[in-house]
Amino acid sequence: MVTERIGDTYVKQLVLAFLDDPKVAAGLPVAQGARGTHHTWRGGVAEHILSVMRLTLRVSDQYPMADRDLLLAGALLQQVMKTVDASESSDESRLVGHIVLTAQKLREKVLAIPGFPPLLEQHLTHLIVSQHGDAPHSPKSPVTLEAQILHSLESLDARIASWLEAMQRDSHDRWTDSVRPYERQLWKGPSPTSRGRAPVEGGGRRKAREEKRKARPEKPQQQGTPAEGAPQEQQAQQQRPPRKERPPREDRPPREERPPREERAPRPPREERPPRDASSLPKELTFKPFSALTSLPSDSGKGGEGSSES
């Protein structure tokens, strides 16, 4: 797909340089998506990359104004560094993140290609840093047509893979249990049209495991084991091992009698205080907070009379 569909020489050299990288070549067939996201199975990252690449070919036919070479290269570059450390367990992945690591690796590969156009490098870098769209944690929002298309296709493929995986895990026939990331139940029953097919065949992994367990041949019953139709109490009694007899308890010596407590002498009654002498109380308050207010009317009255007399 890379050699046949990409026409630009520099883009083709860059993509092949990534695919020839030893770490990418070793991790691409086995890398899986991060737990709790999407494509969380062996080789899931490679499947996600190929799926988005196929979608870009369909979309570029519908929208020929979009650059097909940039779309194909961006579909690979957005996820390629996840193949090196898909679980993001290394110090470099946790501190830097796969987006920055991919941009750094892109710069390294570009410097090894003579005459690589700077504007082309900037557009490819923009496809990497804008892959999360307008999300708050996105380093850059899409500003090119190719970046917006790639973000939409990547989100579409990730959401569909996540839904199908949730349907596979569920054991019901029509509605799944509430799926945690989306807080809703998903319809997994057959289509109401003449097609009549369900998104996931087989009723889910749990149901398949239950059917396999039922299909297993029953083990021969050993001697001394209770029959299946026997009461549960009888089965439990036959399965329990006999109890060991406990030795008799030794007689404990009687407790020593404690001496009675000594009675405390009662407290003497309090002495009654004599009443306070009224002459010791102040006759007038030394601080009169309302004296200023009470003096205002008389002062103003005097001032008013004086002004009228004059």
From TrEMBL:
Compositional bias segments (type: Low complexity): 226-240
GO annotation (BP), single: rRNA 3'-end processing
InterPro entries tied to this protein: YhaM_exoribonuc/phosphodiest
Molecular-function annotations in GO: hydrolase activity
Annotated region described as Disordered, given as residue ranges: 185-310
Record's compositionally biased regions (Basic and acidic residues): 208-219, 242-276
Record's protein name: 3'->5' exoribonuclease Bsu YhaM
Organism in which the protein naturally occurs: Pseudomyxococcus hansupus
